[in-house]
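Extended Data, panel c. Modelled sequence:
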Amino acid sequence: MVNQKYLEKAEVLIEALPYIQRFNRKIIVVKYGGSAMVDEQLKKSVIQDVVLLKLVGFKPIIVHGGGKEISRWVGKVGKEPQFINGLRVTDEETMEIAEMVLGKVNKELVSMVESLGVKAVGISGKDGGLLTVEKKYSNGQDIGYVGNVTGVNAKILFDLLDKDFLPIVCPIGMDENFLTYNINADDAACAIAKEMKAEKLAFLTDIEGVYKDPKDPESLISKLFVKEAKELIDNGNVGGGMIPKLQNCIDAIEQGVSRVHILDGRIKHCLLLEIFTNKGIGTAILRKEGIQHYDVQ
């Protein structure tokens, strides 16, 4: 008799089959941040997930943050990290530190991907004018060198994908005067996914997903349609930090991204569990009712 454990492994692979078929050669943008960037084991599992997606035929692009690491280095030079309305105040010196730290993080991720046998290219939003920005204000307040994305030169990323590279994007951009700006990694990932009409956009976060009631851990929503997401925001049913993330999801879908996933990056292999299983583990946001996770829209 074949051991039941091995049969279960086979069943897992078969369950993944329709997803692999539907998303073969499709672009998936992964926004990588939060605790999954700090814990070495989680970091390894995220990179393994993305490499596996690449090897089974997806076209993944990683857009990474690095906020916790930036705060650590800002502290090292004797500065106090400053935030206004949850956004980092980025003066000239902090911008210099942020660019250095994000560049270091970027190349570490490239090394990890390459060590698993996949060719990766780390690229800053400044390279080839990948991300152009304008100065961002927070409720009218000046927060320094923080940028809103105004343009994406997607040709660079399409060229890298066509040559079979896995692009890893550092969220730094330039304005029309070639000044350097820090970009919120969620915003950068969303802008890239929209411009490339990605099939999927996945946010790795430090929460399990979207809740009907933030105070009730049992109220996690596994599937959410754009109309319902707007209602959650309008009704005040989501917490402050989730509102911009959910708005980014809605914007992405309304501008051509097929589905968006909000995942708990603290769970090992969360990407694989959400993308390749029927139940999923986070919240999948879809365009319209009647669509399954793996249906082509």
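Confidence is low (pLDDT under 50) at residues 290-297. This feature is highlighted in the accompanying rendering.
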